[in-house]
């Protein structure tokens, strides 16, 4: 299993991502954490997608968008769509929105299967890694679970993909990031309730290769 889990954007050492997927590799960029809801528009989403693709292209990777909204109840379609890629890149945003679209498309089961088989590198930042935990409980102190109902008319999904056995807490002690105070509240919640978790400052990333986890 190969994971590159950044607190914010590519992190300070994206060369580890390139090493995991291979120089010049194709990556599918998934940006459903910023799907339109409330004042957030489709144009806002398109700009966010362009920023992610530009960043990945800057590393010499071949990045293309994969919009999970195109695969409603179609895990077989998701699997076929992922076949050309060495890795997936899941950007930040609302973790509950991302998790809901994963469930709705069936991408959650497909991604777990491919990552556990080491057929695909899972990479991303903020919400992207957060959904890998056993549960999303606690993230409601930062992200709005009610956005799922407003966007898709369905309740939020509270279980995570459980590809990691701890909660991922980004943006901790990261002055300038608008969510750093909220993530401090999330961290305190986990400490109080005895929930295993890992905190990262912006610039840091967790790299998981097999049974070895390192912070870069």
Question: Can you walk through the features of this model?
Answer:
- It is globular and about 45 Å long.
- It contains eight helices and nine strands.
- The protein has one domain: 3-Layer(aba) Sandwich (Rossmann fold), CATH 3.40.50.
- It is an alpha/beta fold.
- 36% of the residues lie in helices and 18% in strands.
- The strands form two sheets. The protein has a seven-stranded mixed β-sheet.
Give the H and E element order.
EHEHEHEHHEHHEHEEE
Kindly provide the radius of gyration, computed on alpha-carbon positions and rounded to a whole number of angstroms. Answer: 16 Å
Which second-level CATH architecture applies? 3-Layer(aba) Sandwich
Distance between the termini: 17 Å
Mean pLDDT reading = 97
Number of domains: 1
Major sheet attributes: 7 strands, mixed
Fraction in beta strands: 15-25%
Secondary structure elements and pairings:
Elements: E1 2-6, H1 15-21, E2 26-30, H2 42-57, E3 62-65, H3 75-82, E4 87-90, H4 95-105, H5 107-116, E5 121-125, H6 127-130, H7 146-152, E6 167-169, H8 180-193, E7 197-199, E8 205-209, E9 212-215
Parallel strand pairs: 1-5, 2-3, 2-4, 4-5, 6-7
Antiparallel strand pairs: 1-8, 8-9
């Amino acid at each position: 299993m190969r994971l590159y889990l950044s607190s914010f954007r590519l992190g300070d050492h994206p060369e580890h991502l390139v090493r995991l997927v291979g120089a010049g590799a194709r990556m599918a960029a998934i940006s459903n954490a910023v799907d339109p809801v409330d004042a957030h528009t489709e144009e806002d989403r398109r700009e966010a997608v362009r920023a992610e693709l530009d960043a990945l292209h800057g590393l010499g990777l071949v990045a293309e968008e994969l919009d999970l909204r195109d695969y409603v109840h179609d895990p077989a379609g998701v699997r076929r769509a992922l076949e050309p890629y060495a890795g997936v890149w899941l950007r930040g945003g609302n973790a509950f929105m991302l998790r809901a679209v994963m469930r709705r498309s069936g991408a959650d089961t497909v991604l777990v299967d491919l990552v556990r088989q080491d057929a695909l590198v899972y990479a991303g930042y903020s919400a992207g890694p957060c959904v890998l935990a056993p549960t999303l409980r606690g993230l409601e102190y930062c992200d709005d679970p009610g956005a799922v109902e407003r966007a898709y008319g369905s309740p939020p999904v509270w279980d995570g993909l459980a590809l990691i056995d701890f909660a991922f807490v980004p943006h901790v002690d990261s002055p300038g990031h608008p969510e750093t105070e909220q993530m401090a509240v999330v961290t305190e919640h986990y400490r109080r309730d005895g929930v295993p978790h890992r905190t990262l400052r912006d610039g840091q990333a967790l790299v998981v290769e097999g049974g070895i986890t390192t912070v870069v």
